[in-house]
Amino acid sequence: MKQNIAIVGAGIGGLTAALSLIRQGIGVDVYEQAPELKELGAGVQISSNGTRVLYALGLGEAIERLGVIVAGKEIRLWSTGQTWKLFDLGAESVERYGSPYMMFHRGDLHAALLGAIRHERPDAIHLNRKCIGVTQADDCVTIQFESGETATAPLVIGADGVQSRVRFSVFGADRPEFTGIVCWRVLVPRERVPESIRMKVGTNWVGPGGHVVHYPVRGGALLNLVGLMERDDWRVESWTVQGSKDEFHGDFRNWHPDIHAMIDSGDIPYKWALFARPPMPAWTNGRVTLLGDACHSMLPMMAQGAVMAIEDGMVLGRCVAKYGATPEALQRYETVRRDRANRCVAASIDNAKRFHNPDLAHAAGAEAYVTREWQEDKVTARYEWLFTYDATAVPI
Ligand SMILES: Cc1cc2nc3c(=O)[nH]c(=O)nc-3n(C[C@H](O)[C@H](O)[C@H](O)COP(=O)(O)OP(=O)(O)OC[C@H]3O[C@@H](n4cnc5c(N)ncnc54)[C@H](O)[C@@H]3O)c2cc1C
User: Fold this and answer.
1) How many angstroms is it from 349 CA to the middle of ligand 1?
2) Which terminus has fewer CB within 10 Å in the chain: N or C?
């Protein structure tokens, strides 16, 4: 039997866990279903609690080259475009939290993790390995793959995303609930959009029943545009289904012209339905545990899903280094991580209500609502506990 730890899934969470283990001198095998490694054409925001981990894993030079540090975030009203400051980022984030808030093309962040792993362990990642189940004995776990092959390891980490087969195999079927929200995503060449929306800030447009987020990625060459709208007629939970610009425009009918200018300037948009899963009471069973979206998928309204997966990966590596390749290591990891991740799941649901509030319908009511909801002390209470967390040093 190989003594390497096995990780199922080479997404941002699985790769961070792999690198964290490698940096602790522990061998890993990562099994990924895809025939080639690439990420979706979309953006991802990594707040200081995530970049802190990436720096600790030795990725500072790569992320500074690939990411965009925005000056801040702002709230804009869906109808008039009225703008309020949400918070300052840039130098302020570094001063306050010790690490920057950065925006990435997902492929760039994924490639940075992958490059570091391949540099240290060129043979650690195995492609075309779709896990269909796991079985445990006293001292090891066997992974079954769709091809009929198997692999054994002393510990298995299910980092196989929201539809996790490892979770299904260990904990049974989950109960996803449709949120009534449809998401749109598209990348937009920044030089094609009006000057007024080219600024290096992150923007959240808020309105009754929907919101729109955009921010620069890939050195500022592209804008990542995401729109979420409450509607009941599309329930496909897939990241690879194309929609049309007409339908995207239609969902945001009567919203500000800047939004329509971005939709017009982008490529073909993708759409998917957002599902929510109730928090899991446990992530670990013996020598198998879960990580990232496999155990705590969340609505995107706090922009923390990938960041939580990054934190998980760091804590997992530290726990295995401290407690060995034992069930105790996985139990410690879960104890350290579960409440925090579940708190983030709940905070994301709260933010969905805030971003889509009916009080935003009319400009006069919206002014009072935004001023009340995004007061500095309330914003601090909502985000400070996230940004200050240090996965590299939290007691384990
Ligand atoms: C609209 C939107 C915007 C978002 N924006 C942000 C943001 O700004 N910031 C943020 O932190 N988070 C964001 N998120 C959340 C973030 O995308 C996810 O939380 C994150 O990608 C989860 O990473 P993961 O590694 O756990 O799972 P995944 O990225 O889903 O990776 C899972 C991997 O496992 C592989 N796999 C799946 N099944 C198997 C199998 N059976 N066998 C082998 N391999 C398998 C997959 O191919 C994949 O490579 C957003 C999400 C959405 C929907």
Assistant:
1) 18
2) N
Conformational region of residue 64, where left means phi above 0, alpha means psi within -120 to 50, and beta covers everything else: alpha
Cα pseudo-dihedral 237, 241, 244, 247, rounded to 10: -10
Whole-number Å distance, alpha carbon 11 to ligand 1 midpoint, is 6
Nearest-CA residue for atom 41 of ligand 1: 131
- Protein residue closest via CA to atom 26 of ligand 1: 292
d(Cα 255, Cα 364) in Å, to the nearest integer?
16
267's tokens:
């490529």
- Measure the CA–CA gap between 161 and 226, rounded to whole angstroms: 20
HSE-CB for 168 with a 13 A CA cutoff: 12
Residues belonging to the chain = 396
- Identity at 154, one-letter amino acid code: P
- What is the C-alpha to C-alpha distance for residues 49 and 57, in angstroms, rounded to an integer? 13
Read out DSSP for 251-267? HTTTS-HHHHHHHHHSS
Of 283, 395, 261, 393, nearest to 331 by C-alpha is 283
Cβ contact 126:35 at 8 Å = no
Atom of ligand 1 nearest to the CA of 297: 19
Quick one: CA dihedral 70, 276, 340, 305, positive or negative? negative
Other CB atoms within 10 A of residue 351 CB? 19
Q: Whose CA is nearest to atom 35 of ligand 1?
A: 9
Residue nearest to atom 15 of ligand 1 (CA): 305
For the whole prediction, is pTM greater than 0.90? yes
Q: Among 269, 272, 266, which residue's Cα sits nearest to residue 297? A: 272
Report the nearest atom of ligand 1 relative to the CA of 226. Answer: 1
Residue closest via CA to ligand 1's atom 17 equals 306
- Tell me what pLDDT residue 198 has: 77
Pocket around ligand 1 at a 6 A CB cut-off: 8-14, 31-34, 44-45, 130-131, 159-161, 165, 183, 185, 226, 292-294, 300, 303-307, 309
Catalytic positions are: 215
Radius of gyration from C-alpha coordinates of the chain: 21
pLDDT, tens digit, for every residue of 122-150? 999 999 999 999 999 999 999 999 999 99
Note the Cα 124 to chain centre separation in Å.
Answer: 23
Distance from Cα 35 to the centre of ligand 1, integer Å: 17
What's the 138 CA to ligand 1 centre distance in angstroms?
31
| 62 pLDDT more than 60 | yes
